[in-house]
Every structure is written in structure tokens, then in C-alpha cells.
tRNA (guanine-N(7)-)-methyltransferase
Amino acid sequence: MRLRGRKGIRESLENQPDLVVLDAKPHRGRWHQFFGNDRPIYIELGMGKGRFISTMSATYPDINFIGVDMYDELLRRASEKARAVWAERGVESPPNLALLRANIEWIETMFAPGEIERIYLNFSDPWPKAKHARRRLTHPRFVAKYIELLNERGEIHLKTDSKLLFEFSLNSFSDMGLQLRNISLDLHRGGVREDLVLTEYESKFIEQGQPIHRCEVVVGREALAEHRAAMRRQVEGHKADTPYPVSEPSSSPATTSEG
Ligand SMILES: C[S@@+](CC[C@H](N)C(=O)[O-])C[C@H]1O[C@@H](n2cnc3c(N)ncnc32)[C@H](O)[C@@H]1O
């Protein structure tokens, strides 16, 4: 029987210590102990009903995932979703997933420096009024905290339907001196990308025909070095592929010493 009311929801969350974390502080710097392994930790900030983080955890069992949201009811729904996704695979308790009830405002009290490898920001509230810009999860004051918490391979992946939030975020990442990659103004323009896991909000916006904006931010030193090396290889490859021009365009001015 489903528990109802605030007290009932809280009780249902308290009864799931294998999956739901109501107080992050004891786990700060010790999340690997929670999971019982040393694998990378990817987090989603503002997971909502948890479709994305649940599906990701089942799709990538070698990564640890943490979904963060601040509302008990969303945590309850996310826990049901996660258990349902894993039940399809015959597993009762998701081994690589934690659902954390916390306010992102104090993210530095939940994770230690270098503890996280990837942050997903999926359809974060855009806070459209300029006077609320500080609340946007990509405001430089948040980005500065993310930089601290990410490890050497650290990245931030952002998806949004909001042009305003996307523009604001690109400026914010760039102002913080970060490297952007794979920027798309219409992620699903050629049909829904099957290789990327959709979120609840994303499905809704795709149905409405709204373009989804996406970018990746390369933060960690190792990730940045890898990205630069890949770019150098691409440029070198391109140079090698390009045939050397055998003749000048006929409009070129004559520059021989004979004049
Ligand atoms: C628009 S929803 C997106 C949900 C989900 N990521 C998706 O794409 O379907 C934004 C979510 O962020 C959560 N959120 C917003 N600000 C937060 C904060 N400061 N701390 C924790 N969660 C927050 C909200 O509760 C909400 O569930």
C-alpha cells in the first residue's frame, strides 16, 4: 500500500537506506564507501522524478550515480522509478545509485573536492528574471563550486530548452575560463538521439517540437589534455587529407621576380 501524506512519504524514504540518502554530511568524502567501490561518480543536479539517473545507472553499471533533488515527494517518485528500472533486470536494490535529498545551494557540504567526475544539469530552472540570475545553477558562483568538486577527468554536461539559460550558461562557463565542446542548438534535429538517455522534461519538450540545447564543459586537467590532443590529431589528420594545391587561382596577382 502506498504511504500518503508528508509523514508517510518521509517514512517511506527513511525505510530505503540502500538507495535514499537524507543527510549527505556523513558521506562527504566517503561516497566511494557508500558504493563499496572506487568507480567514478556522476551526479545529476535537480533529478526531478528520476528517469534519467535511474536509466543511466542501469545502462552504465560501472559508474556510480547520485541524483540530487530537494523535495521528498520527488525523491519518493525517483526511488519507485529506480527500483522499477532495476527490477526489469532482476535486481531489487540498485547497486550503483543513490538518491540524495539536499539543496544544491550547499553542494560543497555534500561532496569533497575532487570526489565527482561528472555533473549533469538537465533542464535546470531557468529563473528568467534578471534579479534571480544568481539562483541559476550555472551562475559563476555555482560553477566555481563545481570546479572545486570535479576531479582530473571532470566534466559538466548541460541540456536545456531555455535559450536564455543556455546563453547565460555559455557566458558563465566561458567567463570561468572553461573549455566547451559538442555545443548543439538543436540536439534532436535529425531525429531523437537514441544514444543519449532522455529526461522527463526532455521528452515533453520534444513532443512539443521545442529544440533542445546541449553542451559539454571540459573541466579537469586530464580531460582537458585529452580533448586538446584529440583536436590536434583532428587538425593534423585534416592537413594530411587536404591535397596540396597544384595551381594558383587564375585571379592571383603575378608575383614572380620577372614582374
Ligand atoms: C525543471 S526540473 C528538471 C527535472 C529533470 N532533471 C528533468 O530534466 O526531467 C528541475 C528540478 O530541479 C530541482 N531543483 C531546483 N533547484 C534545486 C536546488 N537548489 N536543490 C535541489 N534541487 C533543486 C527541482 O526540484 C526540480 O525537480
Remarks:
- The pocket of S-adenosylmethionine is lined by residues 46-48, 68-71, 74, 103-105, 122-125, 199-202 (CB under 6 Å).
